[in-house]
Design a protein that fits this description.
This protein is α/β, with parallel strands linked by helices and 270 residues long. The chain is built from nine helices and six strands, in the order αααβββαβββααααα.
């Protein structure tokens, strides 16, 4: 068999993307964030159910929010919403149990707090925050649909009420209840099988409409390019560490621009 032409390779990759798209669920974070991008109705429905607050109103939703820490590890939040009370709600979807570790939840919470007050603002102005992990498996292993975590006084069990909350949602839970139906919907690959029309409409748009499919295919291509670029950055960093390559050689081998290589060198030196 001869080698595929460039056109044939592109068509093959497109067909592979369409096949991947058909298998996506809301439990896949890249698909979730694209479905919820700019869509307050969907995240509002999810938050109303998992927080058991039917009157909750979402004013703003952002996806793939980069929270920078100049000295230490930064984080990228899947979803960051703001409700009508000013509370900030971070929703993360994790298929891997390891990705939903307790210290990951703690770190997300601390990074949110560190970026919510301006210099000189009183601590009492710190808004209420939620870090919500929706996990494919029952990571806590108790068979419950929801695992709310709160600081409390150990002696009395009373809540500390500092406005910081962590919630784990068991994606494996099923029942004829709102949370059971929601977790069913998060595991569906076909919009026709979903209970909640708000979510089904978003899934149907990205899987069945021409416009939505084009958006998802572009997103998958962008992810491939980003993964490739990150790999090339690792190559460039190793070449810089070796100390025997000229910058022009690193540019030629890695495919990065001279400016990008210079920045990697500066970051490494810092």
């Amino acid at each position: 068999m001869g080698r595929l032409t460039v056109t044939e390779q592109i068509d093959q990759k497109h067909q592979e993307d369409l096949q991947r798209l058909r298998g996506f669920r809301l439990l896949d974070d890249d698909f979730l964030t694209k479905c919820f991008e700019g869509d307050t109705a969907s995240i509002e429905l999810v938050l109303q159910i998992v927080l058991e607050k039917p009157d909750l109103k979402v004013l703003d939703v952002r996806t793939q929010v980069f929270v920078e820490n100049l000295l230490n590890r930064s984080v990228r939040l899947d979803i960051l919403a703001t409700d009508s009370t000013g509370a900030k709600l971070n929703v993360e979807v994790q298929r891997s149990d390891k990705g939903a570790g307790r210290k990951r939840a703690r770190y997300n919470s601390s990074m949110m707090d560190a970026n919510l007050l301006k210099k000189g603002e009183d601590f009492d102005k710190l808004p209420e925050t939620w870090v919500i992990f929706i996990t494919e498996n029952d990571v806590m292993g108790k068979g419950l649909p929801l695992y709310p975590i709160e600081r409390c006084f150990l002696g009395t069990g009373e809540r500390f009420e500092d406005g910081s909350h962590i919630l784990y949602v068991n994606g494996a839970y099923r029942s004829d209840t709102p949370i059971g139906k929601l977790m069913h919907d998060f595991s569906c690959t076909d919009a026709a099988d979903m209970y909640y029309g708000t979510l089904a409409d978003r899934v149907r748009f990205f899987k069945e409409s021409k416009e939505g499919i084009e958006i998802m295919c572009r997103a998958m291509e962008d992810m491939r390019n980003q993964t490739l670029k990150e790999g090339m950055k690792e190559v460039a960093l190793r070449m810089l560490a070796a100390g025997k390559y000229a910058l022009e050689e690193i540019v030629n081998i890695s495919g990065l621009s001279l400016e990008e290589v210079k920045q990697l060198k500066a970051d490494r030196s810092a």
